[in-house]
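Trying the structure run again after the queue cleared.
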Amino acid sequence: MEIEGTIQTQDLSPNILYAAYIIIKISDHSFGLDSIPCETSITNATCSVTNTAYLCAVDEQKQQLKSLFFMNRTQMMEKLVVKGEAQRPSKRGDGWMEIELGEFFVGEKNEGVKMSLMEVKGHQLKGGLIIEGIEVRPKCE
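Done. C-alpha cells:
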C-alpha cells in the first residue's frame, strides 16, 4: 500500500511550520490494516523524516480485544518497521480520523514537499481503509 502526495511551497505562506495529515476512516469490517505498522515520511529539498504509523480504529474496546488475541504477533511485526515517533489515529470532530505524517518548515524559496504513508513489507491483503486525502495546515504548538 502506497499513498503519496506532493505540494509546492509557493502555495503556502512563508516562514511557517506546517504539518501534513492523512485523513481516514476504517470500516467495521476492515482487515489486514493493523498487522504491520506503516512508514510515514515528509521529504523536501533539504531533509527527509520517517516515522511509524498504526492504522487502527480509535475504538478502545475493539483495540483491547484485538491486543488480547494478537499481542505476540503485533509486537513481533512492530520490531520489523518501527522508525522515529509512532503515530496513531486521532478522532476529528467531523467523524474522520487523522494521522500526522510529519511536519516541515516553509522558508522563502519554492520547493516541493512529498508526503507519504506506505506499508510494503507485510504483503497481506488489506481492506476497509477509506481515504479522504492529505491535509496540510499550520502546526499548532
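Helices lie at 60-81. Worth checking whether this holds up in the mutant runs.
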